[in-house]
């Protein structure tokens, strides 16, 4: 029998990580070689010569996040294929992870069948992008065309302007013609990108960068 494809799973949410490990282990020809809560644990495992074929890597993790981890893996172990796994679906996050070395990007709400397809594709073709993620990338590249690099996309800038008012997140969703879930994604993405933890922190960023008039 041929050797099973060895997968490592990095996610700071224990229940999700263990559920993913159980699911991946149920796939034919796959096994889970280790789990980790963040990039530091991945480095520790690999230093013990536990080298996976694929790392299922969450983007938003404490201590050493997905960006820093995929950069380190790409620079030191380019043979390890990284499949990014996240709740964030904004184009900037997707493009940044791919630029840093990820071979694919999937969302946490996908079906088990798509996860299996993604793993297979990364191993056989060296990449995986669903139609949805591909569309996000194209949208992001179009927004980037002809303007300087900006960590905050246009939709998030509009969200920042509204966050500086007294209206609720629900009202912000209505004004932007998006779902409350999408507003939650904007907020969580900005928390991660801008390294802030509260609405006040977002307001301070908007003020410092001239997105609102004082």
Regarding quaternary structure, how should these chains be classified? single chain
Strand line-up in the sheet with most strands:
2-1-3-4-5
Number of H/I helices: 10
Which structural class fits the helix and strand makeup? alpha/beta
Under CATH, the homologous superfamily of the largest domain reads: Response regulator
User: N- to C-terminal separation?
Assistant: 68 Å
Under CATH at level 1, the class of the largest domain stands as Alpha Beta
User: How large a portion of the residues is in β-strands, by DSSP E?
Assistant: 5-15%
Q: At the third CATH level, what is the topology name of the largest domain?
A: Rossmann fold
From the spread of the alpha carbons, the general shape counts as elongated
How confident overall, as mean pLDDT?
Answer: 86
Descriptive notes:
By secondary structure, the chain is of the alpha/beta class. It has two domains: 5-138, Rossmann fold (3-Layer(aba) Sandwich); 154-208, Orthogonal Bundle (Arc Repressor Mutant, subunit A). It is 53% helix and 13% strand. It has helices at residues 14-26, 39-47, 66-76, 91-100, 112-125, 131-144, 154-163, 169-176, 180-194, 199-208, and strands at residues 5-10, 30-36, 54-58, 81-86, 104-107. The protein has a five-stranded parallel sheet, with helices on both faces. Helix 4 links the parallel strand 4 and strand 5 (104-107). 30% of the residues are buried. The model has no long low-confidence stretch (mean pLDDT 86).
